[in-house]
């Protein structure tokens, strides 16, 4: 799911890249927890063996033809031992802590399966137990200090262990207090005792410490700012002032209220998200990830930019069932990035392609990021309705990425994969066709409005059955234990981020900040939708520096969502726009979580990889404009309007990509780039052009005329590129990709342009 740094679980973390020294220390820590905490060490070497059937594991079955994306051999220690050794070493302490991590992982996953199958506890008790187990794992796995590991400073290591013990005890106490005294707390609701608010204060402190370790210091500072704002309200002048709240009320509202730590935000993870995290862990362990990556390369390997297109398609397939950008990177990246480098892509471009493609996994159904489940709950609509409106924009995002990597391959004369390096489709399908059945079942169930939890459980059951029927994907007892721990480990940053985001939700509700902020946002730009969208995008970029995607979405939607609704957008459209914009924390410097994880695999500079990822992921900014200004989201509206929105939007996105990259089939001249950019803008924000022409020229021009003009102009400019390319090819001025291109002097280039 969203923000999960290690849904693969089959690899060990990578130390912080030495090239990342320019980042803020806490941002680096956050990145490490969010992304580079994942398995990248096995593929960072320049000489890593990549290709089909070249992995370290052999099963003696048809599955051996598939790529082995994790690269671990048969003698690799169990997953719980690997993550324990990262902090506690390989000695006796590591063995003991590994056993504790195993026990907690089994307890957390087992508890989640119990409540999914039986629902024997009320919602608050479920959330209390879930967060308790999550925070216990956080305090054991993640060190409190940078040098708090076994191989670090001994004094710091001991101090860290003592702090962990205090946090563990406090976690258990504040988690069981509302359960043990449930009747008494209900009886005195609104008239809480000193012990109640003290427990609330302790719970906030404990959760903030877990957040610092699992998410990052920036999130802690942001939450602290909201708590402080709730307390000092009477001292704030102007619109943002409010009556204020005592620290006793803040503590009890956060701890015992319906909007707080144990509110809806955490409830979505407990009820829906964990089941799909488990599905992703099961798919990874059975080899389903290998199949999807292999299938992607078989379908795209012979195309221009084949390895990069394979990375895009593979990330789309994996993202549709994992819903996590960083999990996608560490799942597919160790295979896709070396292959891209092998055919000629630059290191930072290979990392950028993988990061941008993996980010698209969070917006692609059937399993989107955790924010999509939150969206369904906040809107009070079935998750299937979210899937229906999300599928077309997601496909357009990946189509745009396909175009970007095609342009990049032609621009840098990147060769294609050798025919002998790619097995036939039939061979790959024979090795993993059975993995398609659970995915198809999941899609059918979701589209038929089966509750997500039940659909996820059915998909897990189907995947388990088909995997056990074939020797190449059959699981043993240790594999089952690893799946339990992998799923539990992957949920840590998700659950902690959603729990602490609940504090922000509670403070916004307590102070009325959401309505005030929306009113200010609308009035500041005189009701102009475009400028409001720009401000929301900038706010998302700023929040993304320190917040994971889900937390960024929660904060943005409670502050800016009402403003977008006031400006005429449907509520689901406003939420979807905010959800898309919140994805930029994965690919936008200075902190680009997915890009930095990919940089570790590609052995490239993190910041340069982040810039490349940001360029390739332009769809995150452009497609929300189509959502706001066209019928792209109106899947239940007139079919013709939807088709027009898709066709014109696709042409505009293609023109925008060419303008950004300055290339298509040949280099574009400056005038062409400007014309392409303006033509795309006519389509993307057509209603704004109507307002501008009326204001400046006092002429009323309907928006559909701007859409038509922009589409025609984009089509003509793209067509000229195709015609000129074919003419050059006929004259022998274009050689096959990967071969030296004939020199064309400036006169020829100017003439062609």
- Termini gap: 46 Å
Q: What Rg, in angstroms, do the CA atoms define?
A: 26 Å
How many strands, which pairing sense, and closed or not: the largest β-sheet? none
User: What percent of residues are in strands?
Assistant: under 5%
Number of helices: 32
Helix content: 55-70%
Arithmetic mean of pLDDT: 82
Helices and strands in order:
Blueprint: H1 25-36, H2 79-88, H3 92-117, H4 123-141, H5 154-180, H6 182-187, H7 194-214, H8 217-231, H9 247-256, H10 264-286, H11 288-300, H12 306-322, H13 325-343, H14 347-360, H15 370-379, H16 383-411, H17 425-432, H18 436-447, H19 452-468, H20 477-511, H21 513-524, H22 529-543, H23 549-566, H24 571-581, H25 593-602, H26 606-616, H27 619-629, H28 639-661, H29 670-684, H30 686-697, H31 703-730, H32 746-752
Helix pairs in contact: 1-25, 2-3, 3-4, 3-10, 3-20, 4-5, 4-20, 5-7, 7-8, 7-9, 7-20, 8-20, 10-15, 10-19, 10-20, 11-12, 11-17, 12-13, 12-14, 12-16, 13-14, 13-25, 14-16, 14-25, 14-26, 15-24, 16-27, 16-28, 18-19, 20-23, 21-23, 22-23, 23-24, 24-27, 25-26, 28-29, 28-31, 29-31, 30-31
Question: Can you describe what's shown?
Answer:
The protein is mainly alpha-helical. It has 32 helices and no strands. It has helices at residues 25-36, 79-88, 92-117, 123-141, 154-180, 182-187, 194-214, 217-231, 247-256, 264-286, 288-300, 306-322, 325-343, 347-360, 370-379, 383-411, 425-432, 436-447, 452-468, 477-511, 513-524, 529-543, 549-566, 571-581, 593-602, 606-616, 619-629, 639-661, 670-684, 686-697, 703-730, 746-752. α7 (194-214) runs antiparallel to α8 and α7 crosses α20. The longest helix is centred in the middle third of the chain and has 35 residues, at 477-511. It starts with 24 loop residues before the first helix and ends with a helix. Mean pLDDT is 82; it is low at 1-48 and 744-753.
């Amino acid at each position: 799911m969203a923000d999960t740094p290690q849904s693969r679980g089959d690899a060990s973390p990578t130390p912080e890249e030495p090239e990342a020294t320019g980042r803020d220390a806490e941002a680096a820590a956050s990145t490490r927890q969010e992304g580079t905490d994942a398995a990248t060490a096995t593929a960072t070497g320049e000489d890593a063996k990549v290709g089909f059937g070249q992995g370290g594991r052999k099963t003696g079955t048809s599955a051996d033809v598939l790529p082995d994306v994790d690269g671990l051999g048969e003698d690799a220690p169990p997953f719980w031992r690997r993550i324990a050794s990262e902090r506690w070493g390989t000695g006796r302490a590591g063995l003991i802590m590994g056993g504790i991590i195993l026990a907690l992982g089994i307890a957390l996953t087992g508890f989640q399966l119990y409540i999914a199958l039986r629902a024997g506890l009320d919602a608050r008790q479920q959330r209390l137990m879930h967060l308790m187990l999550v925070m216990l794992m956080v305090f054991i796995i993640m060190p409190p200090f940078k040098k708090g590991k076994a191989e670090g400073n001994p004094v710091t290591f001991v101090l860290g262990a003592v702090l962990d013990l205090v946090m563990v005890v406090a976690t258990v106490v504040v988690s069981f207090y509302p359960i043990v005294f449930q009747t008494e707390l209900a009886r005195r609701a609104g008239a809480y005792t000193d012990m109640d608010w003290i427990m609330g204060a302790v719970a906030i402190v404990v959760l903030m410490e877990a957040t610092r370790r699992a998410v990052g210091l920036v999130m802690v500072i942001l939450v602290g700012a909201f708590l402080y704002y709730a307390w000092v309200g009477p001292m704030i002048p102007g619109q943002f002032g409010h009556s204020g709240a005592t620290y006793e009320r803040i503590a009890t509202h956060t701890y015992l209220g319906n909007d707080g730590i144990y509110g809806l935000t955490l409830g979505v993870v407990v009820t829906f998200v964990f089941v799909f995290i488990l599905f992703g862990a099961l798919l990874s362990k059975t080899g389903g990830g290998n199949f999807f990556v292999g299938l992607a390369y078989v379908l795209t390997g012979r195309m221009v930019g084949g390895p990069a297109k394979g990375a895009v398609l593979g990330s789309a397939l994996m993202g549709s069932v994992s819903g996590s950008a960083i999990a996608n990177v560490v799942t597919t990246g160790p295979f896709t990035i070396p292959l891209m480098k092998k055919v000629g892509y630059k290191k930072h471009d290979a990392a950028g392609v993988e990061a941008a493609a993996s980010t698209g996994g969070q917006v692609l159904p059937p399993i989107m990021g955790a924010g999509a489940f939150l969206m369904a709950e906040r809107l009070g609509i079935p998750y299937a309705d979210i899937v229906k409106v999300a599928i077309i924009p997601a496909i357009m995002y990946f189509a745009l990425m396909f175009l970007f990597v095609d342009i990049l391959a032609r621009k840098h004369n990147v060769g294609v994969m050798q025919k002998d390096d790619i097995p036939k489709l039939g061979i790959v399908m024979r090795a993993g066709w059975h993995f398609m059945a659970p995915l198809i079942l999941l899609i059918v169930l979701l589209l038929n409005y089966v509750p997500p939890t039940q659909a996820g459980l059915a998909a897990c059951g189907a995947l388990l059955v088909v995997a056990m029927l074939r020797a190449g994907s059959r699981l043993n007892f240790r594999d089952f234990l690893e799946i339990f721990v992998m799923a539990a480990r992957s949920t840590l940053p998700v659950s902690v981020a959603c729990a602490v985001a609940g504090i922000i939700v509670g403070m916004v509700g307590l102070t009325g900040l959401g309505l005030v902020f929306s009113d200010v946002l609308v009035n500041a730009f005189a009701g102009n939708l475009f400028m409001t969208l720009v401000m929301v995008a900038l706010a998302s970029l700023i929040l993304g520096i320190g917040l994971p995607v889900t937390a960024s979405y929660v904060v943005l939607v409670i502050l800016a969502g009402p403003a977008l609704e006031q400006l005429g957008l449907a509520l689901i459209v406003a939420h979807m726009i905010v959800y898309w914009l919140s994805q930029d924390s994965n690919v936008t410097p200075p902190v680009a979580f997915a890009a930095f994880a990919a940089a570790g695999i590609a052995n490239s500079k993190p910041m340069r990889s982040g810039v490349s990822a940001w360029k390739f992921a332009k769809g995150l900014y452009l497609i929300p404009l189509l959502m706001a200004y066209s019928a792209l989201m109106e899947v239940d509206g007139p079919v013709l309007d939807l088709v027009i929105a898709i066709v014109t939007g696709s042409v505009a996105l293609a023109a925008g990509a060419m303008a950004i990259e300055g290339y298509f089939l040949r280099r574009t001249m400056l005038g062409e780039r400007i014309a392409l950019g303006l033509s795309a803008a006519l389509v993307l924000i057509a209603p704004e052009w109507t307002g501008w022409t009326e204001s400046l020229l006092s002429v009323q021009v309907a928006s559909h005329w701007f859409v038509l003009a922009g589409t025609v102009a984009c089509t003509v400019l793209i067509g000229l590129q195709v015609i000129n390319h074919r003419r050059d090819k006929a004259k022998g001025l274009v050689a096959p990709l990967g071969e030296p291109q004939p020199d064309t002097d400036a006169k020829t280039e100017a003439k062609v342009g």
